[in-house]
Amino acid sequence: MAYIETHKKAPDAEVHLSDRTAHTLSSFWKERPLLLVFLRHFG
Amino acid sequence: MQLHNAKEKFNEAGFSLVLVGLGTADQAEKFRAEFSLSFPVICDPGKELYRMYDLKSGSVASVASPSVLLKGLRAMSMGYRPGIPQADVMQLPGVFLIDTDGSIRYSYFSKDASDHPAVDELLNLKKMFKESGTMNSKQ
User: Fold this and answer.
1) Burial class (CB in 10 A: 0-12, 13-18, 19+), B115
2) Is A42 exposed, middle or buried (0-12, 13-18, 19+ CB in 10 A)?
3) By the CB < 8 Å criterion, does B49 face chain A?
4) What is the ipTM metric for this complex?
5) Could you give the CA distance from residue B5 to residue B8 in angstroms, rounded to a whole number?
6) CB-nearest partner of A33 from B81, B93, B99
7) Domains of chain B and CATH, by start
8) How far is A24 from chain B (nearest CA, A)?
9) pLDDT tens digit string along A1-43?
10) How far is C-alpha A9 from the geometric centre of its chain's CA atoms?
C-alpha cells in the first residue's frame, strides 16, 4: 500500500474552514511549520 | 482533547496547528465551540484532502477490535467522551508536519482508530529537526 513520503512536497489545495472561508492549505505553512492533524470525527 | 490541552506547548514549539475533519461546517463549528478551540478546522466531507495525503479507510477490525474498544473505554475513564464519526466510519486518522518550504518532514498513518502519536512525540519534532538542521523556520 503506497503512502505519501516524507521530504516530498506536501499536496496543496483550496480548503474550507468551519467559518466557511476558503484558503489555500499552503498559506498555513508559509510562516511556521504546520502540524496538520486529520481526525476521524469532530468530537 | 489532548491536542487542545497542549496548544500552548505547540505554539511555544513554533508550530501552527490545523485540524481536518470529515464533517460539515456546522458540525465543525459545534466542535470548536464545545472544546473552545482557537485553531483552524478544515471541513473535508468529500475526503479530497484525506485522499491527497494517502489516508486510508480501515477494516472493521481497525475501528472496532477489542483493543480499539479497550482504548476507547480507557479514554472515557479519563474524561474523554467518544465522538461519532461523520461521513466514513472506516476512515483512519493521521498527522503530518509540513515545513515552511512545503516539504513533509514527518508523517504518521494511524494503524487503527485508537492509534495516535503521543503529544510529547510531536512536541519533540522541532528539537529533532533543529538538531539535524532540516527544519526551516521563519520565526
Assistant:
1) middle
2) buried
3) yes
4) 0.93
5) 8
6) B99
7) 2-132 (3.40.30.10)
8) 11
9) 678 888 899 999 999 999 999 999 999 999 999 999 999 877 6
10) 12
